[in-house]
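Appendix C reproduces, verbatim, an entry submitted by the partner laboratory led by Prof. M.T., so that reviewers can inspect both the input and the predicted structure.
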Amino acid sequence: MDYPAPLARLIDELSKMPTVGPKTAQRLAFYVMRLTAEEAQSLADAILGVKAGMRDCSVCFGITDTDPCAICSNPARSGAVLCVVEDPRDVIALERTRGFRGRYHVLGGAISPLDGVGPDDLKIPALLSRVQAGGVTEVIVATNPRVEGEATAIYLARLLKPLGVRVTRIAHGLPVGGDLEYADEVTLALALEGRREL
């Protein structure tokens, strides 16, 4: 038996989300179907609100509802230390440690020739501009500890060192092949403290 068209469409849309397979999409669709009209409207409004209200920060390229973001506009944050990450979720993960008081730069990915992602596809020119503008003394490369993240870290070190800044890499207290967003706060804090020169 096929699902009625509205339910089938909802299942199809939900199954397009990352990590949501057909069975999970069906469970979510039936959950949504049982919501009251007010609860369904609230969920729809939240989805539309994220689309309408969120944007990339013009300075660090993290996600924000104001531009520049709260971290970039905070005078208590040090502009002398930049932490370079692949994804906005990595900023959130590092912020949970409450141990980093510098600023961030989100690359928007990692160099991955197999996936067709090269240096020109990342926010590397903006990073170089920030460093060349002056005031930055250290760049912490906090790309994910997998092949693409390591390749990106090495590439960035080659570009940044001639600019006269200290380039460090977070320590490998994180599991190889893992993502920053899934690490716990203690592991991330130790990784930041144990960073090393590239």
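The first strand starts at residue 55 and ends at 56. Additional entries are available on request from the coordinating office.
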